[in-house]
Amino acid sequence: MRPFRFCLPLVLPLAAAAQMAQSAEQRLAALETAVHSAQSAGDNAWMLMSSALVLMMTGPGLALFYGGLVRKKNVLGTMMQSFALMALVTVLWAVIGYSLAFGGDRPILGNFQYLFLNGVGGAPNADYAASIPHQTFMVFQLMFAIITPALISGAFAERMKFSAMLLFTTLWSLAVYFPMAHMVWGKGGLLNAFLGTPASIPCLDFAGGTVVHITSGVSALVCALYLGKRRGYLVEPMKPHSVVLSFVGACLLWVGWFGFNAGSALGSSALASSAFVATHFGAAAATLGWLLAEWLIRIVMLFVVIRRLAAGGVAEERQAERAGRDFGSGGRPGGHHARFRVRHAALRSGDRVRGGRSLLFHGRVGEAQVRIRRLSGRFRCTRRRRNSGSAAHGRLRHQRSQRRIEGCCRSSA
Questions:
Q1: Which residues lie below 8 Å from residue 304, measured CB to CB, with a gap of 6+?
Q2: Around Cβ 341, how many Cβ atoms within 10 Å?
Q3: For residue 293, is pLDDT > 80?
């Protein structure tokens, strides 16, 4: 027993040191777990907010934007398209869409791994977003699937039946959007730059430039070309119902785009801040560029209209002077009539310039062009009739004056 007594003073410090080291490791592990939980909570909160912002772009955003641009009789139908697409695409996404877009590792299309959202729970999916729940990632991608066909609806507004729109959206989502989303964003996709195979063609798509905007833009162009022009286009006026609604919708799209772009970072990180800043400054610069382009177009159009009208006024003045010289050469009193015609032509030219300017400054450039063409043709016809009538009137006045002179001569004789 005595040897053990001598060893106790040496063993006890070692045991205490081992216990302290173990407790330090446990505390470090607990601290790491707490930090990861806090990061996951922050990322999850931002992604849920981003999902709501992207949905706001479709619901009130595009609905108000497109609804204000159509005619009054089609406002409710156009807004209802965006509302119905929110419900239709959500059901398609839950049943089969998410599985075809993000299930499996095939190059073109996914599989039925997540059919009816089977296996999509609160645990993160390390392949796509390791710091947020799998359900949050699924919901965020759902909002992209909703807004893409809603963007296309502006191309066939007022020209497609509601039932045909629902059928078209269903087939388009199955044939175009879900395969494209898998090829660009899905694991093993043909165009995936990060999770693809060595045979993949790398395509960098941070926030839907390929999956959302290119697919919707090309599809919208095809729809517009296939359906053709609206009935009565350039024949009857098709003024926007309410520019105020479109303005409110544009503002909502601006705000919603923060969730669209900054949310694509899949977390509240420095990358999200960079996308947020780029989105805001890019939208501000684009707005100023748009205003500048509108001003330049109006100034150029006004200059062209004034130049044409001035050329027409000069031609009228020359014709009036020529007519006055013709009347005066025959000894007929055409001077007063010529001055009247010159003054009348100047007044008509001034009215046309002011009318064209008012139309241009109200932003109806196309309508101004049509009306100016009609008015110019009408003025030509009126000028011909006025010229012929003026010549006859001048002859009649000349005959009357000759009769009066002859009567005066007879009375004096």
A1: none
A2: 22
A3: yes
